[in-house]
Request: fold
Amino acid sequence: MFSAFSNSQQPKKRGGCFWTIVVFVAIYLIFCFVVGKKMGNMFGGGQEVTLKANAIYKLDLSGAVVEQGQDDNPFASMFNNTPYQQANTVGLDDILSNIRLAKENENIRGIYLCDGELGVGQAAAKEIHDALVDFKTSGKFIIAYAPNYGLMNYYIASVADEIYLNPVGSIAWHGLAAQKMYFTRALQKLGISMQIVKVGTFKSAVEPFMRTNMSPEDRKQTMQYVNGLWEEIVTSVSKTRQISVEQLNEYADKFMDTEDPQKYIEYGFVDKLIYTQDIDSIFKAVCGDDYKFFTTNQLKNVKRATSNAPKSVAVLYAEGQIYDESGQGGIVGKDMVKTIDKIAKNDDIKAVVVRVNSPGGSADASEQIWHALEKVKASGKKVVVSMGDLAASGGYYISCGADYIFAQPNTLTGSIGIFGMIPNVRGLRDKLGVDVEFLGTHKNATMPGDMFFNGMNYQQTALMQKMIDRGYELFTFRCAEGRHLHQDTIKKVGEGRVWLGKDALALKLVDELGSIDDAIAKACELAEITEYNIQYYPAKKNFMDEFIKSFDTSSEEEKMLAKLKALVSKERVMAIMDPITIE
Reply:
């Protein structure tokens, strides 16, 4: 073999070079860890914060709300406007914990809701809204200001004692709209058709690949829950701002986004128009000159009272789409099962609260997670589910066996139905001039490849439909067993139909409307424990995990393709709610 080295020292030089690289990498990693840890502390990512009198919780209503917050990455700002830029996220758990702290801590005078366009789901927004309403019982103030208010920001800010707006700002008050995208014609142009087998008249997740508009069934269910979501918003704002529901609906018809800002005062939406520079004078008038703001990241590092109780309640977060395998984010079935098994084996844990915020996904992974939670119940622990924005399809599957289920009135849940979807690229193959030939030992040995390259025949479609029907029978059986209802009753409210939490309560798909705190209280009641500590699963990612994540260069297009690949490849049977944008 040709080599660039020819003397007897060749092996020694290679070894020396190798160990030099090893030492260099080790030093580099140690440097990153030490500097990263110190930087994390500098930016509020772990250093304990001490509160002094005249503190104000500055709750920045911007970024994307996720169920479980993570340690801060102080280097994130280094990658703004670069391929490494990551979306700013804030944990709902951190926000709610901080609001409770602000209510109880005598050094905190009030809360300042400021700025931004918060990316938050309807149920999560309600939890923040309700926590702020509870905070006001302390007699402390809430002041809100923003250059512009998005709808959900205004819904949250409406709780404030005083709402201020930029003199040239706007409020997005025009009702709610649902938007869905359909790809059928685009796929036809490419020569690709989707072969779909499903159970559920309302199971609309496949419609973007087989239709060009909403089916009558999907239109019916979507309009029903969009109206329900709007009802929650308008009823709450009416109560907090003392504006009638009828007037609020009239204002929505006017498309308030384009109104003269002076009208917002006249209609009662805001109290005063001021510039950002004038905010300081507002707080000085209330608190004096020595007030100090504390952000969400700072306040979460204020020491809380901890319990030494030997008994624990586990809070398990199940957020995102459900997948069989790792590498796609969301809920990975195998990883989730391992986590649940750890909880089952921990004798100190007496109850488990599963916080579900998922549109569903792989039916097989959903079944595995369901089974793991059944083992937790078999170990003597109580299992309570707290539904967030979504607990639909596979998200409901993993919830249905719980001893007790909470949802918010505006949670989207149900969607009990499944489907399979396999692309047929025969048209694309013809366009490209690609020919494929199969050989097999048995009648259906070539079926997997044949379905993809040539399309399913009648017999193959029947085989796939049989598998989907069997999956639906199992899904509805699990729901019936868990909810103590007849399977026929589940099928009547199933069919893939999406329900609001308040409707799901009437249909006995959930037991009670309430927050994650309500779910924790119920879990303790069922487990008959009064003193406990809380253990969170999975554990929050540390700073270094988040730092490494900052270098994810995947584009949004690549991430979308990965999700589509998961949708139509190995995970053939899916229990998932269709993607929808509500604005």
